[in-house]
Amino acid sequence: MSALKIAVGCDHGGYELKKEILAYLEKEGIAYTDFGCDSTESVNYPVYASKVCKSIQSGECTRGILVCGTGIGMSMAANKHKGIRAACCSDTFSARMTRMHNDANVLCLGGRVVGAGLALDMVKLFLETEFEGGGRHTERVALLEAIENEQ
Ligand code: RB5
Predict the structure, then answer these.
(1) Separation of alpha carbons 40 and 11, rounded Å
(2) Residue 63 dihedral angles phi and psi, to the nearest 5°
(3) Which of 8, 96, 116, 133 has the greatest number of CB atoms lying within 10 Å of its CB?
(4) Total number of domains constituting the chain
(5) CA 51 – CA 35 distance, rounded (Å)
(6) Among the options 10, 37, 61, 68, which is catalytic?
């Protein structure tokens, strides 16, 4: 887990949960960059999704965590970025499986959907679970990339 550098971002709907996530990363000694926002004042989630995704595209960060009210807007915005596989999760099974099968590199959470306890369990699983790889999953991720390249 220590080789990870996590890009974290939120909008006003995710600000409180993001603070819990940052405290968790601090406690675990996991490196991160916080791309904002910095309060509960209304902002536009695509702006923060883009900052986080660009840091992954550039190699500055290895994975991302985005939090908005539902996690949905952040996942929509994140998945517009080439090379980004963002998963909006509300349960631990999905948070683990999206690493194992989809090689997701961004986890999106809803600050108005899940409590901090569940969210931190999802973050832990998302960060510690490796892509299973192998023929079929690698092929499917390649097909996702092929769709992206057709656009
Ligand atoms: C902001 O009110 C809310 O729309 C946003 O946080 C997010 O839930 C969008 O998907």
Answers:
(1) 8
(2) -145, 165
(3) 8
(4) 1
(5) 7
(6) 68
The 10s digit of each residue's pLDDT in 54-77 is 999 999 999 999 999 999 999 999
**Which residue is closest in CA terms to ligand 1's atom 10?**
73
Count Cα atoms within 13 angstroms, Cβ side, for 146: 6
Tell me, what CATH number does 27's domain have?
A: 3.40.1400.10
CA distances from 148 to 32, 88, 103, 140 (A): 27, 19, 15, 13
| 61 catalytically annotated | no
Which residue bears the tokens 């998963």?
Answer: 87
- pLDDT tens string 6-23: 999 999 999 999 999 999
Q: Which atom of ligand 1 is nearest to the CA of 13?
A: 6
What are residue 9's phi and psi, to 5 degrees? -150, 160
Show the domain range for 41: 5-150
